[in-house]
C-alpha cells in the first residue's frame, strides 16, 4: 500500500510534481499525454549527452556503453516479464508499432489481419496500410461503446483460421479501460494458433502489471516518456518468431538485429532508471526477494492507489461531490467499470470540453481535451460527442489534488 509517508517520498523522486516550469504551481492530471519524469532520468540524460564515444569500438568507453545497453535490455525484459526475445529502441512507440506490424504482415502468407475499433490509430493505421500492401483483409472487432473496451468474447466471434496477424490494445488512452490481453490472445490462438500477435502497451505501461510470458504474444511496444522516462525514443519487445521474419536490416549485419544505425546509449540507460524505480517502489510495499517480484509488487501498489484516486474523483471526497453526482456530467465507459486504469474521461452537457479544460487551467489544474478526430473519433463518434475532457492520473498524484479538481469543477459548472 502507498501510505502518505511513502507518497511524499515518491513525489520527491519526480521533476516538476507541483509546478510547471512555465506557469508555476499546478496539479498535473495530463499523465496520459506524457507522465512526469524521474529526476534520475534527467540526470542520466545529461550525463550521457556529454559522452563522445560510440558503440562497437575497441576502447574502454565503448565497452562500457555496450554493457549499459546490455543491462538495459535485461532490465526491460524483467519489467515486461519476458524471459527471452529481442528488446530494442526506435524513434517512438508509434514508429515501432508500424515496424512490427509491417514485418508481421509482409512476412506471413495470405490471410487476414485482425484488430479492434478501440485501438489507437498507431496500430489501426499500421494495420490498414500494411494489410493493403501485403494483400490481406483487415478486420476490426467492434468494441463496446458503453464500457469503452473490447473483450475476448468479441474477438472470438471474428477470429478465423486464416488470421495471420492480430493486434491488441492493452489500455485505451481515451476511455482509460484495460483489455484482458491474455484472454484475447488465447481466443485468437484457439482458432489461429500461428498468428503473430502485437500489443500496443503505450498507455498501460505506467500503471504496471505487464507479463509477456503470461500473454503468449509476439510483440509489445511502449513509449518510455509515458512511463517516467523522456521523449525521443520508443521501446519494443519482439518474440524469436517475429524476429525470424524478414525485416529491415543492414546486409551482412548481425543476425536478428532490429536496430538501424547507432542508438542513443542514454535512451537505454534512462529505461534502466525506470526499472530501478519500479524495483525500489516494490521494495517499499513488499518483501519480494527478486527484481521481478518487486516490479510486480510495485504494479499492484500503483493500481490500488490509482483506483482509490479515480474512485474519489467519481464518487467524491470529504464534502465534495464526485463527477458521478455532478449534474450534466457523463463519464466515458460508465462510472462503475473495474477495467479503469488511472483515467477518467467525461463531458458536461451544454459545455464544450475545450472551455472546461481552459477553465480548469485557470484553477491551476492541467487536463486535456480529446476531440473526435483521427486520434479519438473511433471512441467519441459512436457516442455522438464532438469532444470530452480527459483527466489522467498517476500513482504520484494525491487525494488532495483530486479534491482541488472537484472543487474547481463545482465552480466551473455553477458558473
UniProtKB/TrEMBL annotation:
It is an enzyme of class 2 (transferase). InterPro entries: Aminotrans_V_dom, PyrdxlP-dep_Trfase, PyrdxlP-dep_Trfase_major, PyrdxlP-dep_Trfase_small. Its EC number is 2.8.1.7. Residues 27-405 form the Aminotransferase class V domain. Pfam families: Aminotran_5 (PF00266). One of its GO terms (molecular function) is cysteine desulfurase activity. Keywords: Pyridoxal phosphate, Transferase. This is Cysteine desulfurase. It comes from Salipiger mucosus DSM 16094.
Amino acid at each position: 500500500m502507498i501510505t502518505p509517508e511513502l507518497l511524499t517520498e515518491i513525489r520527491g523522486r519526480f521533476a516538476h510534481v507541483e509546478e510547471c516550469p512555465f506557469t508555476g504551481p499546478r496539479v498535473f492530471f495530463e499523465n496520459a499525454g506524457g507522465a512526469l519524469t524521474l529526476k534520475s532520468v534527467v540526470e542520466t540524460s545529461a550525463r550521457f549527452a556529454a559522452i563522445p564515444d560510440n558503440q562497437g569500438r575497441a576502447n574502454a568507453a565503448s565497452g562500457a556503453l555496450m554493457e549499459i545497453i546490455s543491462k538495459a535490455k535485461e532490465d526491460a525484459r524483467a519489467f515486461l516479464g519476458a524471459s527471452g526475445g529481442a528488446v530494442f529502441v526506435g524513434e517512438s512507440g508509434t514508429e515501432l508499432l508500424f515496424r512490427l506490424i509491417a514485418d508481421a504482415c509482409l512476412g506471413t502468407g495470405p490471410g487476414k489481419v485482425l484488430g479492434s475499433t478501440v485501438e489507437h490509430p498507431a496500430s489501426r493505421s499500421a494495420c490498414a496500410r500494411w494489410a493493403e500492401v501485403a494483400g490481406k483483409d483487415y478486420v476490426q472487432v467492434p468494441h463496446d461503446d458503453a464500457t469503452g473496451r473490447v473483450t475476448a468474447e468479441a474477438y472470438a466471434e471474428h477470429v478465423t483460421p486464416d488470421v495471420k496477424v492480430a493486434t491488441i490494445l492493452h489500455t485505451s488512452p481515451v476511455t482509460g479501460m484495460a483489455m484482458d490481453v491474455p484472454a484475447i490472445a488465447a481466443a485468437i490462438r484457439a482458432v489461429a494458433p500461428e498468428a503473430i500477435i502485437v500489443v500496443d502497451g503505450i498507455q498501460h505501461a505506467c500503471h504496471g502489471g505487464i507479463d509477456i510470458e503470461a500473454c503468449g504474444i509476439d510483440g509489445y511496444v511502449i513509449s518510455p516518456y509515458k512511463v517516467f522516462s523522456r521523449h525521443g525514443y520508443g521501446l519494443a519487445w519482439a518474440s524469436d518468431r517475429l524476429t525470424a521474419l524478414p525485416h529491415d536490416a543492414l546486409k551482412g549485419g548481425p543476425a536478428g538485429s532490429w536496430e538501424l544505425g547507432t542508438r542513443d546509449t542514454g535512451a537505454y540507460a534512462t529505461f534502466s532508471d525506470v526499472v530501478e524505480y519500479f524495483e525500489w517502489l516494490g521494495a517499499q510495499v513488499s518483501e519480494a526477494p527478486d527484481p521481478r517480484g518487486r516490479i510486480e509488487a510495485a504494479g499492484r501498489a500503483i493500481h490500488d492507489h490509482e483506483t482509490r484516486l479515480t474512485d474519489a474523483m467519481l464518487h467524491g471526497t470529504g464534502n465534495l461531490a464526485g463527477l458521478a453526482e455532478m449534474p450534466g456530467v457523463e463519464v466515458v465507459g460508465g462510472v462503475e467499470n473495474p477495467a479503469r486504469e488511472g483515467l477518467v474521461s467525461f463531458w458536461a452537457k451544454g459545455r464544450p470540453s475545450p472551455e472546461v479544460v481552459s477553465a480548469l487551467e485557470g484553477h491551476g489544474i492541467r487536463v486535456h481535451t480529446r476531440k473526435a478526430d483521427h486520434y479519438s473519433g473511433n471512441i467519441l463518434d459512436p457516442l455522438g460527442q464532438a469532444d470530452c475532457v480527459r483527466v489522467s492520473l498517476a500513482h504520484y498524484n494525491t487525494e488532495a489534488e483530486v479534491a482541488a479538481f472537484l472543487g474547481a469543477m463545482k465552480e466551473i459548472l455553477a458558473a
